[in-house]
């Protein structure tokens, strides 16, 4: 969804709790702080927005705070943005160096993930997130200039917030699907995870272990992928934030649809970038090609409880 309309009309309900008799606010699909321009109009109530803005804030401030300052990322409070970053002086314990933001080679931290548990056929309680690895985008030339100028290498600061990061991905994926579907067109498997009712994000959120090719000039990319099994449709969204920097690619199982007629109806409505038909389960072979890292690697998929 790098193209297309940027303002999606409201459904008149909160996309998270489905209440209608409440004040609704616009919802950025990809947060403004990473340059998202696509908006679901009047889409979330105050209670739900409070929940989502909590984990969004953890990513924007705790994980990416310094990096956003250093890279001059969008912010509604740009005027209040610090001009200097305080870095512990490695030669004088307890002292801090005042580094002008433009000098500081902050690293933008991402998580490198394995395929989501459900797509590996794992039980819901298997938590893969301890195996996620930290990876970061750094500006090597800036790093070297820094070390020369300040006589010590930069210290990267961030707080490890894997759950918040994964919840943000789930929220982005859900918003992407709502550009073409209505909230009651599918069973939103991702919703209890976004709202914090279910905790093991690695069950529905995963990624491609190897790095995709860099895509110069592309700030973010989302694709809706559908897998059509007999009588069931799976809706999976792929997300890459800053593919121009060689970041990991992620996937989220957003939801599913049951029943032949209903699956056909929803498939005709969803704007899928890519779809696979699995007509004969006996012949179904998982695609090994890493490009299709979001394909399930086992059948049948475990049934999930609502
Ligand atoms: Zn709500």
Summarize the structure.
The protein has helices spanning 46-63, 65-70, 140-150, 162-177, 191-194, 260-269, and strands at 7-8, 25-28, 39-44, 84-88, 96-100, 108-112, 133-137, 205-207, 220-229, 232-241, 250-258, 274-277.
Radius of gyration: 21 Å
Q: Tally the helices.
A: 6
Note the main sheet.
Answer: 5 strands, mixed
Helix content: 10-25%
Structural class computed from helices and strand pairing = alpha+beta
Low-confidence segments, given as residue ranges, are none
> Could you give the order of strands across the largest sheet?
8-11-10-9-12
Strand content: 15-25%
Measure the end-to-end span: 28 Å
Total DSSP E strands: 12
Written description of the protein model:
With 306 residues, this protein is α+β, with helices and mostly antiparallel strands. The chain has a five-stranded mixed beta sheet, with helices on one face. Helix content is 21%, strand content 22%. The chain has one domain (7-80, 107-292). Strand 4 and strand 5 form a beta hairpin. The two termini are 28 Å apart. The structure holds zinc ion. The site of zinc ion (ZN) has 8 residues, from helix 1.
Element layout with pairings:
Blueprint lengths: L6 E2 L16 E4 L10 E6 L1 H18 L1 H6 L13 E5 L7 E5 L7 E5 L20 E5 L2 H11 L11 H16 L13 H4 L10 E3 L12 E10 L2 E10 L8 E9 L1 H10 L4 E4 L29
Helix pairs in contact: 1-4
Bound molecules: zinc ion (ZN).
């Amino acid at each position: 969804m790098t193209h297309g309309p940027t303002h999606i009309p409201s459904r008149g309900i909160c996309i998270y709790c489905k209440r209608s008799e409440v004040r609704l606010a616009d919802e950025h699909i990809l947060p403004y702080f990473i340059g998202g321009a696509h908006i679901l109009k009047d889409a979330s109530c105050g209670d739900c927005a409070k929940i989502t803005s909590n984990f969004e804030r953890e990513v924007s401030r705790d994980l990416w705070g310094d990096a956003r300052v250093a890279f001059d990322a969008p912010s509604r409070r740009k005027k209040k943005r610090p001009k200097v970053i305080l870095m512990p002086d490695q030669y004088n314990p307890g002292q801090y160096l005042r580094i002008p933001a433009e000098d500081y080679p902050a690293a933008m931290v991402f998580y490198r993930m394995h395929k989501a548990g459900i797509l590996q056929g794992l039980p819901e309680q298997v938590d893969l997130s301890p195996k996620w690895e930290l990876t970061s985008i750094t500006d090597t030339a800036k790093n070297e200039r820094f070390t020369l100028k300040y006589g010590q290498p930069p210290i990267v600061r961030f707080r490890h917030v894997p759950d918040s990061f994964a919840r943000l991905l789930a929220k982005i994926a859900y918003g992407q699907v709502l550009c073409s579907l209505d909230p009651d067109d599918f069973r939103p498997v991702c919703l209890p995870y976004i709202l914090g009712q279910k905790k093991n994000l690695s069950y529905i959120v995963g990624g491609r272990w190897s790095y995709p090719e860099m895509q110069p000039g592309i700030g973010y990319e989302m694709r809706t992928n559908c897998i059509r099994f007999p009588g069931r449709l799976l809706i999976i969204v792929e997300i890459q934030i800053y593919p121009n920097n060689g970041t990991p690619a992620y996937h989220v199982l957003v939801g599913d649809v049951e029943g032949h007629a209903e699956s056909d109806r929803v498939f005709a409505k969803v704007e899928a970038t890519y779809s696979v038909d699995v007509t004969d389960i006996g012949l179904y072979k998982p695609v090994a090609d890493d490009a299709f890292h979001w394909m399930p690697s086992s059948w049948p998929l475990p049934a999930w409880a609502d």
